[in-house]
Amino acid sequence: MSDLLQHLFNGVTTGCILALIALGYTMVYGVLKLINFAHSDVFMVGAFMGYYGAHSLGLGKGAERFDPLRVGLIFLLSMAACGLLGFLNEKIAYRPLRHSNRITSLITAIGVSFFLEFGGQMVFTANYRSFPEIIPKTHLSFLGIEATNYPVIILVTAVALMAALSYIVYFTRFGRAMRAVSYSFETASLMGIPTDRVVSITFVIGSTLAAAGGVLYALNYGEINPLMGVMPGLKSFVAAVLGGIGIVPGAMLGGLLIGLCDEFVVYFGLPSSYQSAITFTILILVLLFRPAGLLGKHEPEKV
Predict the structure, then answer these.
(1) At a CB cut-off of 8 Å and minimum separation 6, what does 230 contact?
(2) Phi then psi for 145, rounded to 5 degrees?
(3) Disulfide engineering: 100 pairs with which of 12, 52, 104, 167, CB 3.0-4.6 Å?
(4) CA-CA distance, 255 to 295, in Å (whole number)?
(5) Looking at residues 87-114, what average pLDDT do you find?
(6) In the chain, which ranges are continuous DSSP H helix?
(7) In b/e form, how buried is each residue of 51-60, taking b as 16+ CB within 10 angstroms?
(8) CB count, 10 Å around CB of 182?
(9) What domains are there in the chain, each with its CATH number?
(10) Are 220 and 154 within 8 A, CB to CB?
């Protein structure tokens, strides 16, 4: 029983990180019907900004004691840098193509992704880097689960960020504007909603969440590199599709389910290489039998 609880805990921890990335995919798709494949590389940039922020604040070799001010500044630096990157991505790469066909925007998104990946290799080099322990690591034991404090920090931070996003989307004026743009871009524009501003802020919010996910991922796994966002990004995309792309609760649900699926591969003693295979099998099955996702509703399209 304790072994099952251990794997459930690990799966939920992984799922929270995937959910933070998936939220960026689903938010952008909701307002623009665009799959922003560069989003996974914003996650990578967030991890590197956290790495350089830790070194600039004197935590490059780890922290001897918990310093909430400096740790908070590291997260804020990473989230601000990625928020700016998300804004520039939308402003420079996507906005000029907004009225083009979808395949043009999709190819552009893939191009931006490659630009960030290989640009990251030029700027950061292709070497793996050890992420500093910006928070002292301690070992915890509860209900038969053995863990460090890092997964607990991930759970608390991810839940807090997802709760804040849910509040913004469903209980604020901007959230109503975003949902209106998601429902009908043209109608929202005619009703006086500043659609360009809504789209830009949506990119910024999604990118800041990816940055937080990048720092949490790097803190938990201890290593970063310019291609670190590829597989988590693909799994997060599957999570968004599984939950219902364009639906915020669906991205959260999908991230948790994919995280649990990955962990149960280990629980049942299967090779870890099966994790990706099972993830993409889930994607194929969802597209075949439930293309709108678990929380989505099928809406016929006019042709």
Answers:
(1) 40, 117
(2) -95, 130
(3) 104
(4) 13
(5) 90
(6) 2-32, 39-56, 68-88, 102-124, 149-171, 173-183, 185-190, 195-221, 230-243, 248-267, 274-289
(7) bbbbeebebe
(8) 20
(9) 2-289 (1.10.3470)
(10) yes
- Digit-coded pLDDT (tens) for 125-180: 989 999 999 998 888 888 778 888 899 999 999 999 999 999 999 999 999 999 99
Q: What does residue 63 show for φ and ψ, rounded to 5 degrees?
A: -105, 135
218 close to 224: Cβ distance less than 8 angstroms: yes
Q: What pTM was computed for the model? A: 0.91
* H or E element, residue 129: strand 129-130
Q: Two tokens at 292?
A: 């709108």
Tens of pLDDT along 35-60?
899 999 999 999 999 999 999 998 88
pLDDT band (50, 70, 90) for residue 301: low
Structure tokens that stand for 227 in this block = 């291609």
